[in-house]
Amino acid sequence: MDFAQGNSNQIAVVTDSTADIPAHLVRKHRIHVVPNIIIWGDRNLEDGKEITRQEFYEQLPSMKPLPTTATAAAGVYEELYAELFARGAQQVISTHASSKLSGIYNAASLAANEFDGRVIVIDSEQITLGLGFQVLAAAEAIDQGTSLDHVEDIITNIRKRIRVVAMLDTLEYIRRSGRVSWAQAKIGALLRIKPFLEVSNSEVLSLGETRTFRKGVIRLADVLARLGPLEKLAVLHTNAEGEALSFAERYAPKNIPAPSIVNVTTVIGTHVGPHGLGFTAVIQ
Amino acid sequence: MSSDTQEQSSLDATNIPDLKIDGYALQKLVEASLTWLRTNQQLVNSLNVFPVPDGDTGTNMVLTMQSALDETIDKPHHNFGKTAQAIAHGALMGARGNSGVILSQLWRGFTRGVEDIEFLDAQSLVNGFGLARDTAYKGVVRPVEGTILTVAKDLAAAAEEMIQTIDDPIELFEYVVAAADKSVERTPELLQVLKEAGVVDAGGKGLFFILEGMLRFAKGQQLETAITTVQPMAAMNLENALEAIEPGQDIEWVVDFQPDEELDLEGFYYDLEMMGTSIQLGEGEGIYRLHIHVPIKNQDEPLKYTRSLGTVTKAVMENLVAQMEEIQAGDDGSKLTLSPVEPGQIAVVAVSPGAGITRVFASLGVAALVEGGQTMNPSTQDILNAFENLPTDNIIILPNNKNIILAAESAAEVTVKNVAVVPSRTIPEGFAAMLRLIPQGNFESVVQEMNTALSEVETGEITIATRSVEIDGVQVEEGQTIGLLNGKLVTANSKLEDACLDLLKKAHVNHFELITLFYGADINRNDVDRIADNIRRVYPEQEVEVQNGDQPHYQFIIAIE
Fold first, then answer.
1. Residue B377 and residue B375: Cα distance in Å, rounded?
2. pLDDT digits (tens, 9 = 90+) for A224-271
3. In chain B, positions 450-469, which contact chain A (CB-CB < 8 Å)?
4. In order of start, what are the domains of chain B with their CATH numbers?
5. Taking the complete model, does pTM exceed 0.90, yes or no?
């Protein structure tokens, strides 16, 4: 079954594995998640398969050569879309990681060109649950019978209210990723620097740094508190589950659903490194 | 892999006059292009804008071409157009990375130009290149010039021009490959980041190798040995390699050697890659120069290995970690880069007493520095000049010394610019404040954040008493080492090391996480290392980081956080 109950318009929901949507929600809303790829030496690993996130992050510091990442091929998207139509979908909404940070949107758009406008591809301008919350909002609306035009408005609306903020354990991985220009400049003097960053409007912005994890947590909580009343929250980490749980317990507002604790996808983790902590919040 | 029918109708370099390029020949050409690309894969990977070993363009293009070739092996076809179609489909399915996606679009477009033709002819080739270009440009959200797209455009233009005078597809192709080569060399002129990094575009270079591989096959040239992984010795950029040291690759070797036999480059690179990273090979007048970074456990390997190949004429080994520390410590002032500021952004001016401290401030994003400290307080005018020279009106000044706060405040009053003094009394306080800088942020809230940060670090200072005195209940003799904690005298000792340890004890350093020692101009590195090791022994739970501050008068400035 490809459509949830109430999805009378038969709109299939597609995203990619950078969305970090928890598995039970993927199942509940019948979301189709295309895995991205980790290239590690001669091995091509599909995100989420073959190696667990925990194992990956444990091994990451000693991996040689360092892994790199790749988007699934346009052909993979083309096949998925064709299959969804063959199975009765009338339309497909395919929402993906920021086009400035990855080639996923481009690959999906190329594939969509082959389907005469029946596949709507959306640039979320976000990553991890910044993307995931947009996809979930779309899926929930579709399950309630909302038309595709209206779903696009819903995505645009929630996008404006999403904040993604994180503290990384080290500058090293994001510098190597080559995707963030300011990370280059900050290397070279102090050895222990934990950068703060925010993903906003497709860009990774610097929010300064901290030198110790403990102070970083306090600052992260401070940034969260200043956002005002929230609608949703997810705590993100790269193999720092204990810290993520205690952050959620201490700082998550009590008047919203308990935040998901998400060990971030290895495709993003490759570029940020282990022992990072952050959150995705949706402001009311 | 090849069947009899393939042998007969395929491209045969010894038989060019009767040559007809059909689907099987195209398959062979693609196989050749893949082989040649793979031979040059590391070179393409190394064409990286950033001096770090993360380039994967070559790998992505190889994987894409491999998938394209696999598709033709599954469905061999005599018809050129049908084989091209299979290639395009395989490339699309296996496309990896941006370069792979664009490559697959090039194939897709090319296929449209050669649809259903049995044998390749010059006009179809021109059509194919033209449609390849068009399709690739359409497939990219924001086309950028100076990339693989430009190369595709230039080679299509060359094909369109040459068709006027040439009707043999292979002869035409030769001009196309030459045009692609020229186009790749021109990419840095079109794309500033390439120019700054001193490289050509990796995707464009990969496309060139794909085409050149086909041409080399057609001409019967070998495809297994890279000819371009050896560069002229003079062109080796070893300084750039130094900046790219990876953790664990602590030793740098530069070895000149004369091999006894002709060097088997593929085997040579294979062996070296087992040893280390940042491999470069140069050649000049029969001598090869090898550059490589290796971990300490392999530190003798490069020399042993090159000796096994021939005569070593010169070998230099250096410890990169030590070198990096020297560079970071500011021994080479010419390398200092301050953060550029856009009008409207927040710029920070910091007062710094030493080259090493200055370097740390620069790395944290300071836009201008004023020299000064305990015994050389800068004037209001010095500070004012720094304000006036910045292209923005929103400025924060960090005096980093309690004796400079006033001068900073009066400079702030005099200037017409919007200046806030964040009254840092010590260097560590100044660093703590810098960590809160968000150049594009809101001025008032950044100032507020920086003020908050001042109290988040404890400052220790170690210096020599210039006279005998009793202050803060501590009796001091002239010449003793004294320690100040947040400006208050807490210890006086005849030994430098004891003063440090006593200061840290009084700071309750066991409740903190990180101790950063900025050592001064008047202390030698061996003493610093010995003291740092002792601190590590006494406080095994705390991290200890050592930096060359190069400040006068203070043996140590210590940040405790």
1. 6
2. 999 999 999 999 999 999 999 999 999 999 999 999 999 999 999 999
3. 456
4. 4-227 (1.25.40.340), 231-326 (3.30.70.1150), 329-456 (3.40.50.510), 458-560 (3.30.1180)
5. no
